[in-house]
Amino acid sequence: MATTSDIRRGLCIEFNNDIYTILEFLHVKPGKGNAFVRTKLKSLTSGKIIDHTFPAGHKINPVRVERRKYQFLYNDDSGYHFMDNETYEQISLPEDFISSPQFLKEGEIIDVLFDAKNERPLMAELPQYVILQVQSTVPGDKGNTVTNAMKPATLETGATIKVPLFINEGDYVKINTQTGEYYERVKS
């Protein structure tokens, strides 16, 4: 057992018969009254995000979670298929278990979080940034650079994002998978 003083970003806890990860937290000590910890929790089974306030000193039940590297193979009607490169064991996960599945390309190495006690996958996380090729986009207008003008671009995975006007078909771009936004152009 742990207490609210052990709360940190990324900690996985058992709460309301589910497993949650802590996205944000804030220890608050008001001038009047008892201290408390305000948290933002994300369910690892449903993906639902909730806000919850714990009183200071409240007991929490941490869950041991293991991160394992898996390679993305393909997706079909039964889900997204991954392979452990060490044991060659394959697993299939539904789309809602994967953060930003629209940026997942074949051969990509990702982290799969497992509940160490029950040996069941909880979620799959892409790296913070991925590099993808632009498959199609409209040509940018010359001289239209007074503002930060953006245009739509379709990537090799089929995802559509907004990119600056100077990006052309065939260029490689770095995308932030947490926000789904263009980050920078990458030399191939």
What topology does this entry show?
Blueprint: E1 2-3, E2 12-15, E3 18-28, E4 36-43, E5 49-55, E6 59-62, E7 65-76, E8 79-83, E9 90-93, E10 109-115, E11 120-125, E12 129-137, E13 150-155, E14 160-164, E15 172-176, E16 181-186
Antiparallel strand pairs: 1-6, 2-3, 2-6, 3-4, 4-5, 7-8, 7-10, 8-9, 10-11, 12-13, 12-15, 13-14, 15-16
How are the strands of the biggest sheet laid out side by side? Answer: 1-6-2-3-4-5
What is the number of domains?
A: 3
Strand and helix order: EEEEEEEEEEEEEEEE
**Overall geometric form:** flat
Could you tell me the CATH topology label of the largest domain.
SH3 type barrels
Strand percentage lies at: over 45%
Query: Care to count the β-strands?
Result: 16
C-alpha Rg (nearest Å): 21 Å
Q: State the name of the first-level CATH class of the largest domain.
A: Mainly Beta
What does the average pLDDT come to?
88
Number of helices: 0
Give the structural class. mainly beta
Question: pLDDT under 50 segments (min length 5)?
Answer: none
Major pleated sheet? 6 strands, antiparallel
Overall helicity:
under 10%
How far is it from the N-terminal to the C-terminal residue, by CA? 50 Å
